Amino acid sequence: MSNSALILLAEDRDDDVLLIKRSFARANIPNPMLLVTNGEEAILYLKGEGKFADRSGYPLPALLLLDLKMPIVDGFEVLRWARQQSSLALLKILVLTSSESLRDVNEAYRLGANSFLVKPLDFENCVQLGRLIRDCWLKTDNPPVALRTDPQPVSCEEQEWARRFYRH
Q1: Phi-psi region at 154: left, alpha or beta (left = phi > 0; alpha = psi -120 to 50)
Q2: Distance CA 156, CA 141 (A)
Q3: % of the chain with per-residue pLDDT over 90
Q4: Which of 8, 29, 52, 151 yields a CA-CA distance of 20 to 30 A from 2?
Q5: CATH number of the domain that 127 lies in?
Q6: Long-range contacts of range 121-127, CB-CB < 8 Å, 24 or more positions apart?
Q7: CB of 95 within 8 A of CB of 75?
Q8: Is 1 inside any structural domain?
């Protein structure tokens, strides 16, 4: 995945936003990051509606970092909605939350989360988490053929396989 792949951060707490942004900078994650502060905004962004209608300014993200406990619409509802959209079937969604509840973990995976990560409380552990995300989800992970920007022709069978594989 390229360094220009967009990260969408869905987080309502200013302290957590600041911690995540600073720790990602320290972890040498050059990817641009945009912020939405509630689940309703996250859905509008992913739909490309309202103030997010201009896809040149608000492109689809390659990775969504999703808090569960957000106002208006919570992270579970965002996850449920996103996984029902065929156009977002390949979007990588990492739940990044303070919850350690086994019930929340199981529900997030049941709804289609690619990973469930608990927010560290201190800066150094947050930097380590940023490095983990960089190395596992941004640097070494290859996007499915349907999301690649290179002009290689892709068969319908390859596209269908990628959709099914990356949906789970």
Answers
A1: beta
A2: 22
A3: 70
A4: 52
A5: 3.40.50.2300
A6: 123/19, 123/22, 123/23, 123/26, 126/19, 126/20, 126/23, 127/23, 127/26, 127/27
A7: yes
A8: no
How far is Cα 76 from Cα 111, in angstroms, rounded to an integer?
8
Determine, yes or no, domain membership for 2.
Answer: no
Confidence category of residue 73, pLDDT binned at 50, 70, 90? very high
Rounded to whole angstroms, how far apart are CA atoms 88 and 82?
Answer: 6
Q: Is residue 34 part of a domain?
A: yes
Instruction: Give pLDDT tens digits for 79-107.
Output: 999 999 999 988 999 999 999 999 999 99
**Strands of 11-163, DSSP E:** 33-36, 63-66, 92-97, 115-118
Q: pLDDT for 138-166, tens place per residue?
A: 876 555 544 444 444 444 554 454 444 44
For residue 80, which amino acid is it? R
Structural domain tally of the chain? 1
User: Would 95 be classed as within a structural domain?
Assistant: yes
Assess contact for 64 and 39: CB atoms under 8 A.
Answer: no
**Cβ 46 vs Cβ 82: under 8 Å:** yes
The 63-66 sheet, strands edge to edge: 33-36, 7-10, 63-66, 92-97, 115-118
- 39/69 Cα distance (integer angstroms): 9
CA–CA gap between residue 75 and residue 138 (Å, rounded) = 22
The pTM (predicted TM-score) of the whole model is 0.81
